[in-house]
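Quick review question:
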């Protein structure tokens, strides 16, 4: 059987690229052919293109750059090698208008993972709902809508998209309820593709060349949070750890080893060798869980993206390592790795069953 996946593989984002790799790699490990349909989505090209200077001249943008350190310098070269040499892709690249021509190449086409069903994230691009694919070939794996509640004006549209899928699996608890509400159908909750692969499998492609030769605490964030930084530094000092910060932001983190232009393989190595991870990123948290690390998570203030983090915190019993301010948990015990490992294996098995008994049947 030959499977084609449609996902955010062109994004200059560690989680997006690594989840794209993981799903295809896992399906291949079961003896099937699998590759990413090389869809060159316009919204992704625009999102990661260099921004004109005029974009930053408004008072709001100047404030965000100076006081929230919101500007991140693009680093396409850091992702180029992984995109070209680690992601199995179709021989042809496709525009949206050309996607239908890929139908004859695959027995089944899978949408996912990542926020492929979040129309706000895709700027309204509906290609990830596979409207060009007949129902019997149409599946999703860990598709995320990125919200806990669908806006009223989108309900009918999303219902029409999703109801035609032959097999539906989603990433968050809330998405199971949303699918039921919109279509009356049952969706299977599965783990993010990055959790399908074991830490030993990830270690095979990890690059440790950027890791310091000492014990360290790794900070990886989607948006900077001063309380998170304060906690990380206090915890590192209390436990004799060096602070390492992976970031493309304009201003560096004081009293830390700041690493820029980190490749996905090097990013894996940094997570793999870290003693402790402090993050507000979904995939940062997922890899912390997968690599059995001491992990502290902080929600992003007023962000709708927190639902996926809340799922991880609740599913893996990490409530005691949820940061509410910089003083929480500094003297706490390490994560209960036995419990986390048990839960991960449990959720993995359910996801393996969905893939084997439904997607690949």
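Suggested answer, residue by residue:
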């Amino acid at each position: 059987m030959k499977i084609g996946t449609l996902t955010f593989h062109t994004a200059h984002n560690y989680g997006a690229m690594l989840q794209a790799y993981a799903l295809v790699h896992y399906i291949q490990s079961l003896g099937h052919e699998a590759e990413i349909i090389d869809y060159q989505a316009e919204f992704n090209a625009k999102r990661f293109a260099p921004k004109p200077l005029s974009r930053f001249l408004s008072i709001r943008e100047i404030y965000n750059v100076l006081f929230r350190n919101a500007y991140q310098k693009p680093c396409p070269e850091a992702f180029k090698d992984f995109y070209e040499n680690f992601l199995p892709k179709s021989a042809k690249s496709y525009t949206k208008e050309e996607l239908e021509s890929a139908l004859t190449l695959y027995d089944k086409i899978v949408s996912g993972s990542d926020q492929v069903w979040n129309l706000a994230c895709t700027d309204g691009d509906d290609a990830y709902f596979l409207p060009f694919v007949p129902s019997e070939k149409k599946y999703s794996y860990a598709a995320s809508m990125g919200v806990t509640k669908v806006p009223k004006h989108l309900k009918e549209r999303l219902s029409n998209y999703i109801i035609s899928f032959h097999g539906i699996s989603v990433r968050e608890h809330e998405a199971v309820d949303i699918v039921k509400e919109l279509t009356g159908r049952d969706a299977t909750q599965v783990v993010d593709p990055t959790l399908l692969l074991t830490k030993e499998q990830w270690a095979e492609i990890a690059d440790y060349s950027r890791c310091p030769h000492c014990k360290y605490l790794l900070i990886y964030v989607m948006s900077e949070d001063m309380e998170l930084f304060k906690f990380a530094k206090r915890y590192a000092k209390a436990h004799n750890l060096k602070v390492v910060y992976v970031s493309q932001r304009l201003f560096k983190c004081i009293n830390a080893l700041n690493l820029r232009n980190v490749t996905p393989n090097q990013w894996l190595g940094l997570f793999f060798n870290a003693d402790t991870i402090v993050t507000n990123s979904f995939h940062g948290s997922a890899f912390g869980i997968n690599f059995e690390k001491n992990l502290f998570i902080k929600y992003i203030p007023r962000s709708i993206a927190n639902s996926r983090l809340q799922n991880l915190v609740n599913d893996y019993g990490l409530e005691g390592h949820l940061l509410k301010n910089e003083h929480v948990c500094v003297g706490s015990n390490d994560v209960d790795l036995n419990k986390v490992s048990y839960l991960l294996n449990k959720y993995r098995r359910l996801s393996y069953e969905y893939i084997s008994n439904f997607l690949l049947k």
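Why it works: The mean pLDDT is 91. Residues 337-359 form the longest helix (23 residues).
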